[in-house]
Each structure stands twice: as structure tokens, then as C-alpha cells.
Amino acid sequence: MLEMQSVSKIYRTHLVETHAVRDLTLTVEDGEFVAVSGPSGSGKTTFLNIAGLLEAFEEGSYRLDGVDVSGIDDDTASRIRNEKIGFIFQSFNLIPDLDVFDNVDVPLRYRGLGARERRERITATLERVGLASRANHYPSQLSGGQQQRVAIARALAGDPRILLADEPTGNLDSLMARQVLDLIQDINEAGTTVIMVTHDPELARRAHRTIHVLDGRVTNLDAWVAREAMVAQAADS
Amino acid sequence: MWRYHFQTALKSLRRNPWLTSIVIATIGLGIGVCMTTLTVYYLSSRDPIPAKSDRIVAVRLHNWPVGESPTGGDDPPFELTYRDAQGLVEQGFAKHQAAGYNTDLVIHPEDEKQRPYLTEGRLTTPEFFPMFDVDFAYGAPWTKEQERDRRMVAVLSSEANDKIFGGENSVGRQVRADDSSFTVVGVLKPWKPLPRFYDVNAGAWEETEEVFIPLSLSPVLEARKGDGNTSCFAEADGDTWQAFLDSECVWVQFWAELTSPADLDQYQSMVEGYVASQRDLGRFPRTENVVLVQDVMTYLRDFGVVDDDARVLLGLAFLFLAVCLVNVVGLLLDKFLLNPGELAVRRALGARRKTLLAQRLVEVAILGLGGAALGLAFALAGLQLLRTMNVEEEVSHLDPKLMLVAVGLSVGSALLAGLYPAWRGSRIPPARYLRT
Q1: How far, in Å, CA of B195 to CA of A175, rounded?
Q2: Were both Cys, which of B158, B337, B413, B414 would link to B190 (CB 3.0–4.6 Å)?
């Protein structure tokens, strides 16, 4: 589903050059549920932005669903995002002056679907996330958990091949977090590939596997922990 | 998709009502000022007889001594002597020709309950009517024979016929003007060319005369010129009216209709031939710049019906609109980049740059429509203000065509001002503005 080879992303200012992602190589199989963990500033979100075609990268290659997406133009990237990728953000990113129905409708509008098909898809996904009765509510009238479920419905309505979730439970209490995670797990079990960035090891355990990103690289966590312990020991002695 | 853009735009505009109002007010102010001056300019400079204006010509003859001219420059006067006007009518070089001038008349209505009233009349020759495409409700112009025989006949304007005869067919009835009685031979349909091009000297924005009578009656009636200048470089040879008619004073308008604009050179040659024949009588001392034949619009331009001040004002008004638009650019940049989060979300969900650009331009077009509505209201107020400052009503009312121009100008200006902010908004990097 996702295949990155030696991908690098550098942010440049006139003073400093920052390697947000460095020589990152990763393969995610179709239908996998992968958790991405790592400390703040390690490059997790940049990785997710590159995976979601929201940011370009300088080096390496990237194939998504069998298509080489390295260096594609903006229109093609937009189309692929619209047709194949679903996004879930920590801050939900709902449009405040659109009601639930219209928020879910946004990606379908850009796909150019007819009114009837859009209505059917929206109704079905809202039922799936348990918010059919809230279709006419505005985001401000919903709890955080409900808002995140609207965001999930919006991501699912387009029937994506891959779901990219950036700390999807970061703004939720534990009960709501569990409900949202259950929903994401259901989505994965229904066949959608999921890549989820999370700090929380408990959430990461729900994934089929966890990859650790450190200094912009995918890292073998066990080796890293052992090396850090050795460094600490050496410093103590 | 356009419907969706429209709905999205309305939501976006409602989100910042103050900013939206300020943008609309700024566009409206610029459009209002522009439309006020444009209306006056347009109505002042429009073609009063578009079907024929390129082949109807005014003849200007320079009968003045070398170094002198009533025009201020060295061009021939705008009007002719009575004798030259009559002479050119008699020559009949063109398809139609008419000479004439306006005069004041006191009309005595048939109904004795109605009081006599002062109005404007015109002494002219019968081809005035077909040349200027004046339609008759009843009757017809007087004939050339009636003109030659100095018959006491008259053509009434529609307004005069309404006032004097209650709008009935008055052909054959008598109308009393000053101390004379005229037989009505024709009644015009409503006719009001603007500007009143055939006699701008008496006022380009005046009403059409109410009574038209043969020019050949001038010596009989001793009908003095009403409004407009009479310019003389020498005293008349005596105090009589006939002496004035025979003088070198210029005060009569002369117009001719050519078969085609291409005939202008040939016509000019014929007029020069007439001038040459007059030189044999000791007239026309000049050898250069003696004959000027001008089509309607050239004549009006030369006369200064639209003066240079109006052009300068129009330029300033558009400059003011440009300043307003520069401000609108700033306001729209604020508006479109104030909330980049929504744009970033839409981009993440698959909106292309050009889709967002189109959406923003729809928003800007709506602002332009709002600006047009407000601008028209400002223009109406501005024109009303001009009327209180004695600007003629004829050039200070909103023309329906100009209302459409206002809408087009406003939407076009808004789109122009909004293009850069909309483009900037459509190109924001989504990853930077997504709240994670």
C-alpha cells in the first residue's frame, strides 16, 4: 500500500537547515494497522504529511497504492488525496460554520459526485460513526468525541484506501479515546489501511505493529533504548 | 460546483460581517463616484442621432478678416451669416439641408381660459424634419413652395399640440404666436434629441422648440434670435432688420445630410465653390481655413459640449476607484488569509488550487454585486446633489444602460482587486496551517 525508500525532507531558512525526515524507508502492507511513535519533534507529523501528499520531499521515492507519487503535480496530489486518503487530526479540523452533514460532504463535493450519491454516502457514514441524529448540528454543539467521529465520518465518506490519523485521541478523555480507537480499529478490520501517529503506548498496542521515528528516521526502538542506557551508564561512571 | 461555491461564499461573507461590509462600502464608494461622473460624461457626450451622425454635417465658414475669429482660435465660427445659410440652402448641394435659428414666441392658446405663455420657436427650412428623422403624429412639414412663398404655416411639437389643442389632430387649425396667426400643417411625435445638437449655441440641454415656422418669414416677422450668441466683426449697414440679415454677423445654424460619409470631400469642394463665388462679391478675405465641414460628433466635440473639465473629472473619478481597489486588495488579503485553516482543510480533503481560487472569486464577485448596489445608491445621491448645484437633469439621471455598466464595472473591479488575494489564498501550503 505504502512504500517509502530513503525519503528525506529538509526545512530551510536563511539561517538554519532542519532535517525533518532523513533517509526514511518504510513499507506498509495493504490492510495493515501501523502505529507511529516517537518523541515530539522527531518527524512523525512530517512523515504523515508526506504520506498524505500534503508536503513534497526532496529525496527518495514514494509509491502509494502502486503508484509512484514522487514529484507529482499539485492537481494529481489533490485528486489522490481526495480519492485514496482519509485524514483524522488531533484537533478535528472541522469547518465551524458547516453543520455535520456539510462537513462530511466537503470531500465528496470535490470529487464531483451527484447529490444523491453524496447524500447516501453521508447518511451511511454518519450511521456508521453513530451520529446520524446529529447531521444538522454544528461542531460547536458537539462534544470532542463526537467532533472526532464527524472527522472520521468525513474521512470515511470518500471510501479511502488508507487512513492517516495524527494523534486522533490526543484531545479526548479516556472513555471517548477508547470509543474513537474502537472505531478506527473497526475501520481497519473492514479493510482500510491505517497509519496512526500516537504518543500513547497503550494506543499503539492496538496496531499490528509500531514503528518508532527518531530524528526523522525509522528506528529500532530496542537497539535505541540499549544504546541510550549505555550512554547513560558511561556518563555515570 | 458553482452553486456550492456560491453557498460557501455566502457562509464565508457572513463569518466576518464587518469586514464584508467595509469591502462592500469601499467598492460602493468608488463605483458611486465613478458612476456619478461617468453618467454626466456619458449623457453629455452621447451621439444624439446615431443612425446618421456620420453623414449629417455642420458647415462652418470663415467670413471674418484675417487674424480675427469669434471662436477664440483661428477656426471658422460655429454659425453662419443669414445670407450664407440661405445661399447654401438654395444651392442644394446635399441630399438635405436646413438652416435655422431659435426665437422667443408668445403663444395665445385657442382656449381663452388659458393664459398666453412664452416659449421657444424655431425658424427653419422644411428639410429640417426629414434630415433629422423627426416623425410626425399628424400632417407633414411645409413644402418648399410654402417656404419660398413665405406662407404663414407652422409645425407644432407634441407638447405644444397637447397644450394648445389638447393633443387632437390640429392640422388645418390656426395657432397664434406673437401677433401672427399660423396654419398648422404638422404635429410632431415627441422628439427630444440630447444633446440638442442642431443648436448647441442656444443650449445643448434645452427643450426642443415648440413651434417651427419657415425661415423665409424672418424678414417679414423680424423674428429676433432667442438664445445663443450673435457675433459680428463690423456694424450692420443700417438699423433695419433686413440690414442685419444682410450683415456679416454669424448667428444661423446650417446642417446638411450627405448621401454617404464618403461624399464629405466632394461636398466640401462644392461649399468652397460657393465661397469662391462670394469672394467675387468682395467677401471672405481669408484664403486658408475658410471652410470647415464637420460631422455631428466632431462638431459637438469642437464646440465643447463635453468640456475638458468633465474629462479631467472622469479621470479623477477612475483614479479614486483605483485607490478604493488598492484598499480592497488589502482588505481581501486580510479576509482570505485570516482563516487559512479552513483552506488547508479543504486542500487536505482534495480541493485543487484552482477550485479554491474559483470559490474565492465567486466570493469576490458577490462583494462586487454588493458594491454595485451600494455604488448605484451613492451615484443616485451624487446625481441628486449635482442637480441641486444646477447641473441639467438631462445629464444627471441614471441611465439604465449605465446601471448595467455599474454592475459590470463593480464586479470587474472586485474581481481585479480580488484576484491576487484569492490566488494567494489558494496557494497556502496545507501542511503548515492544519491544526494537528
Answers
A1: 82
A2: B158
CA dist list (Å): B382 to A191, B149, B205? 68, 53, 19
Same domain, B11 and B159: no
Instruction: List the one residue out of B362, B377, B330 whose CA is nearest residue B426.
Output: B362
Residues of B in contact with A11 (CB under 8 A): none
Place of cell 461636398: B267
Determine the pLDDT at residue A217.
84
Beta bridge partners of B183: B153, B174
The verdict on B313 and B271 lying in the same domain is no
Q: What is the ipTM of this complex?
A: 0.89
DSSP category for residue B252 = B
In a domain, B52, yes or no: no
Buried b (16+ CB within 10 A) or exposed e, B256-274: bbbeeeebbeebbebbeeb
How far apart CA B381 and CA B375 sit, in angstroms, is 10
| Cα(A164)–Cα(B47) distance, integer angstroms | 68
Measured at the CA of B266, the angle between CA B264 and CA B272, to 5 degrees, comes to: 100
For the stretch B305-362, pLDDT in tens is 877 777 888 899 999 999 999 999 999 888 888 778 888 999 999 999 999 999 999 9
Q: Which amino acid is at B121?
A: G
Nearest-Cα residue of chain B relative to residue A109 = B1
> How many domains would you assign to chain B?
2
Q: Domain span at residue B264?
A: 63-289
Q: What is the mean pLDDT of chain A?
A: 87
Rounded distance, CA B384 to CA B382, Å? 5
Residues 68-97 of A with CB under 8 A from B: 74-75, 78-79, 81-83, 87, 89-91, 93-95, 97
Look over chain B and give the mean of its residue pLDDT values, rounded to a whole number: 91
Q: Which helix (H) or strand (E) holds B337?
A: helix B308-338
DSSP structure string for A12-59: E-SS-EEEEEEEEEEEE-TT-EEEEE--TTSSHHHHHHHHTTSS--SE
Domains delineated in chain A: 2-236 (3.40.50.300)
Say yes or no for a CB contact (<8 Å) between A167 and B435.
Answer: no
